[in-house]
Each structure stands twice: as structure tokens, then as C-alpha cells.
Amino acid sequence: MGKVVMYSSVSVDGFVADENDQPGPLFDWLTSGDVALDDGGYLKVSQTSYDYTKPYWGQIGATVVGRHVFDLTDGWDGEPPGGVDHVVVVTHRPAPEGWDPAAPFHFVNGVEEAVAKAQQLAGDRIVEVAAGDVGGQVLAAGLVDEVRMDVVPVVFGSGKRYFGSVAAQHLLGDPDVVIQSNRVLHLSYRVSPPA
Prior knowledge:
By secondary structure, the protein is α/β, with parallel strands linked by helices. It has helices spanning 47-59, 67-72, 111-122, 133-140, and strands at 4-11, 15-17, 35-36, 44-45, 60-66, 86-90, 105-108, 126-130, 146-152, 160-161, 172-181, 184-191. It has a single domain (4-191), classed as 3-Layer(aba) Sandwich (Dihydrofolate Reductase, subunit A), CATH 3.40.430.10.
């Protein structure tokens, strides 16, 4: 099975959104370059960010998100973001009324079930877990292999935390990726096994 990666863009003080669920400038690095990252050419990054991000995106087989993110994005209109094949939504509610059952979205009750379903769907590809409350729960359950973050030079002061409401200490390995780019610092850490 592929590895499980917790990922998001994040402020230098550890937030993935402000108190009103707004990302502010967290995704500006995705439109501040001159190299097209997506097929439509909407996302344009520096060559450095492209070289780091494009291969990673190509390895993602499934993404795990919480119902809150699903609702905020209106379920991406039934099209998984970034060309991902499947989205697994952690929720205690059913799919929205009128939701197309053929859309590659799967609704499950807990993070363990979500990761297991995502791994089944992804095969040997990466399972990406959105940072925030669900990501923190997956980390706390010991199911995350790697933490990736795109650190953006902004301080929010408060908001939605990258690791959600994780209450215990979790030791990460030394960063195995540190790439400085245009308006972003790309970092990757392996998660140390529990002691």
C-alpha cells in the first residue's frame, strides 16, 4: 500500500485557514509563478515549486477530507480536486441530498475507516490526508507516514490549526525535504513511530 501523507499550505504560525475558514494568502504561491501546474493553466508556480509539487500530485491516488471541507467546497461539484481519482469524506452524515452516487466520493464514519478505504482505492499510490481536524485525528491514530507542508510567509494569529486539536506530542523526523521557492517554503517530515 502507498504511504499516508498529511498535507496543506500553512501559515508560519501553524494555521490552514483563519477563524472564518478563509485561506487568505496561503495559496498565493500557486498563482505567483510562470510555470503552469495544472492543465488549464490557472495554477502557475515557480519552476522550483513545479519540480517539487507536480511529481507529488501525480502520485496521489485518494484524498481524505472532513465533511467540513467537503461542505465548504460544495464537494468540488463532484470532481475530485487536482486530478485525484477518489475523495474519502469523514462524516457522520449521509451524502448530500441529490448527490450523484457515481461521483468518486466515498462517505465513511471515522478516520480509521477513511484511511483503510483510501488505501484500498489508491493501491500503491499515496493517500493524502487534508491537514486540520481530520488530519490531526489521523496523526493521533498513528496512521500518518509523512507530514508535508507548504509554509507561506504570513502570520494569522488565530484560526484553523494545521494539526487540528491534537493534544499529545508527536515526534517527527528531521526534515527530509526543505525547498525555498517563490513565497513558499516546501517541507516534508517523516513521522517517527510511537515510542
